[in-house]
Every structure is written in structure tokens, then in C-alpha cells.
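Pipeline run #58 for the internal structure catalog. This entry was flagged by the ingest filter as a single-chain record with no existing model, so it goes straight to prediction. Upstream metadata was stripped on purpose; only the residue string is passed forward. Reviewer on rotation: M.T. Logging verbosity set to normal.
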Amino acid sequence: MAHAVNAGARLDRLPISSFHYRIFGLVGAGMFFDGYDLYVAGGVLASAVQSKFSTVPQNLQFISLTFVGMTLGALITGFVGDKYGRRFTYQINLLIFGLASLAAAFAQDMNQLIACRFVQGLGLGAEIVVGYSTLTEFVPPKTRGRWLSMMAFIVVAGFPATSLLGYFIIPNFGWRPMFVIAGVGSLIVWYLRKNLPESPRWLESEGRMEQAETLMQAIEQEASGGKPLPPVVVPAPVAQVAAVDLIRPPLLQRMLVGSWVLITINTLIFGFVIFLPQFFLRQGLTITNSLAYTLVLSAASLVGCALGAYTSDAIGRRWSIIGASIVTIVAGYVYARFDATADPAIVLSVGFILVVAIYVQTAILYGVYTPELFPTEIRLRANGICNTFGRGATVVSPFIVGALMASYQLPGVVWLMIGLVVVQIVVVWAWGVEPRNRGLEDVAAATA
């Protein structure tokens, strides 16, 4: 099919300008509060149990229903985003999330809080799918890994932010202010994000050529600053694909890769990292010391994302994923052998390395790799389905983690993580593609 607008080629040859930073800021602001609320459960649930507001089974239900909501949100938003556009979908999910966060702050019992959390989950699941996919369609291929990994950095910054605020707020004021912060911040961003443009790539894929052309001219004018732009390198025509092509090779293999890596990283984060405060409590630490330990390890998440931002463009996505996976296996094995109360320095040192390795994968798998695997016309649907499998796995992982902790303590949890990562290495090695320094249309052409 001839491309009348060539939005992809024209976007890819633009110099980095205020336009790119504006898009990054508008998308990133919402993604930050998404990340903040992803990690708020650790401190909130530890406090809720200690204050008798909830029980351990209720905490597991809280986490599980969060992921049920995120699973549904990821699936629904994939189809809505491809049908009605990135901008419309992004605004709706942030509004849902913000209002549900405020409602959670005023929950009168744990059942009400769990119900609010389910609705929050719908917005959280949608935000991750549409946020990364939207930015993917705007940034140039030579630095796309860096831009998207830094978006993951913004999301993960919610982890230390939540840990830091929780350390000061929860022991003194309880857990409710944590949800107020998320709700108010999200609604402010929802108002500001009215200026987010639609994706020209999506408009062109929908046959809305006039709108795509008008928008592209405005973007080129803003990005060029009146200076001449490099010539457009028109890619070879690529046949459009439909949703049914996702169950046929080679997109089927990409779906398997995308689904498994998201199952793995979701379980690593929400079956291990988010449970850190409760792991430390079970090992005999106080709530204050537990939150302090978690704050130290949370700093490693930012280091991991920054490292992922560098390696994704420097050595490529596949080698970064495989290398970080190997470090995860080694550090996880060592970490499981020590007790937090007996060997705090070793636990924090090895734990720091382990969390860094996990978040190198987080930055690349969430933000960079999965959205790149699929053509524009089905990107959100495919990414949404992969995230659905990833989130679906975490619906049951809290119960699996709880059972492993009861029977085998922390080593049992770590061995589960190691097993998932071993399979991830095999899948990425066998079927993974390398999108580094390639335009999205070039990556899509390999599926034809």
C-alpha cells in the first residue's frame, strides 16, 4: 500500500527538539503517577495489617484484584486505542485512575478499599499499554531505546518516591494520604494532557490522510525551528496486517516472546519487589526498619532503568535482556542464602545488584521491546494482549508467593523467579528480534 503521508519516515528523520521533550513530559507525568501507585501497595498493606485494618488474606486479595483490574484494563485499552486513537484512550484511563485513587483514600473498610483498587487497576493497566506505545510512535529509531527506557525510569521513580513518602508519612499519618497524593496528582496531569497530539502514524494507518498531513506539517515546523530538514527516506511499501495475523507466524512468535517476557517481569516485580516490606517484617524487622531497607533497595531500581537506557541502544535489546537475566539468576541465588537481620550489609549489597538487574529488564521489556515488535495498525492490541498475559500471571502470583513463603520462606520465592528467568533467556534467544537502530516500519516489514 502506498503511503501518502509517510508519517513514520518523516518523524524518524526529525532532529530532537522541544516537540519531543513536550511529548515526553505529557506522557511521562501520567506514567509517573502510574508507577507511584503500582508500588504504593507494599507500604500501605504492611501498615494496614499492623493497624488491624486488614488481614494477610485480605492483602493478598487486594493485590490479586489490582491485577485483575490491570489485566482487563490492558486488554480493553489495546482494542480501544487502536480503534479510537492514543490520545482519547490516554485521557480516559487517567481520569478513571485519578478518581478511584481519591475514593480509595476514604474507604471505610478493607472491602471498600479492595473495590476501589480494582477500579484503579483498570486505569493502571491501560496507562502502561497506551503510554509506552504512544511514545514509541513519536521518537526516532537511533535513540528510541533511550527515550523509552527513560520513560520506564520515570515510571520506576514512583518506587523510591513511594518508599520515601511512605517512610515519612505512613508511621505518622497512616496510609490514606498515599492515595490522596496519587489522586490529586493524576487529575492535575489529566487536565494538562489535553495538549497531547494524536499519533500521525496511527492517523495514517486509519486512512485519515488529511489529518495526518496537517499534524505532520505542524510537528515538522515545531521541530525544525525554521531550518531545513533532512530528506525523507521513503520506506518500501508494507502490506497492512490485521488482528488475525497475530495468530500466524511470524507475529505469533513475537506474541509468544512479548507475552512470556511480560509474565516474567511482572512476576519479578509484583511477586518479589513489591513484597519486600512484608518479607523484611517476617524476618523480624520493625515497620520503620522494613521501610528503610526498602527505600535503600528502591534506589537500585533507578540505577537499573538508567543502565537499561544506555545498553538498549548501545548493545541492543536482546543482549541487554539476556545479560540482565543472567545477573538476576546469580544474584537471586546468593540473595536467598542470607538473613536480613543477621547479614544486613550483605543482604542490601546483593539485593541492590539483584534489583538493578530486574529493573534493566523492566526498562527494556515494558518500555522498549514489546511495543516495538508490532506494526502500528495493531500495536496497542498486540501490546495489550501481551500485557494481559503478563498481568494475568500476577493475579495468581501473590497467592503462589504466599504459599511459598509459608512453606519455603524467601528462598522458595527466589527459586520461582529464577525458573521464570531461565525460560525467558531461551525464548528471547530463540525468537526475539532486534529493533535497535531500525524504524518501526522496517521492523514491521519483517513480519510481511
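catalog note: The chain has one domain: 15-224+243-445.
catalog note: The chain has a mean pLDDT of 89.
status: ready for reviewer M.T.
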